[in-house]
Amino acid sequence: MPNIKSAKKRVKVIATKTEQNKMIKSNLKTTVKKAYEAIENNDANKAEAVSLATKKIDQAAAKNIMHKNKAARMKSSLATKANA
């Protein structure tokens, strides 16, 4: 355990940020999964689902929760599947 006041604060801040990042990642995974399901089932709102998933991927990349190349790869994969 840290003894210095600033180190104690860093532990708290890191724990808070970790929780926020986990929530964003979880939400992202759920959204992408729903988009793939919409594509698979050929739903009427599949374009909307893909658009929302793309937005979430961009937001996660902007916040450095995922690498920008991974985000680009995910978006590309999603778009390819949607257009097929």
From TrEMBL:
Pfam families: Ribosomal_S20p. Keywords: Ribonucleoprotein, Ribosomal protein, RNA-binding, rRNA-binding. GO terms for biological process: translation. GO terms for cellular component: cytosol; small ribosomal subunit. One of its GO terms (molecular function) is small ribosomal subunit rRNA binding. SUPFAM superfamilies: Ribosomal protein S20. Binds directly to 16S ribosomal RNA. HAMAP family: Ribosomal_bS20. Belongs to the bacterial ribosomal protein bS20 family. This is Small ribosomal subunit protein bS20. It comes from Ruminococcus bovis.
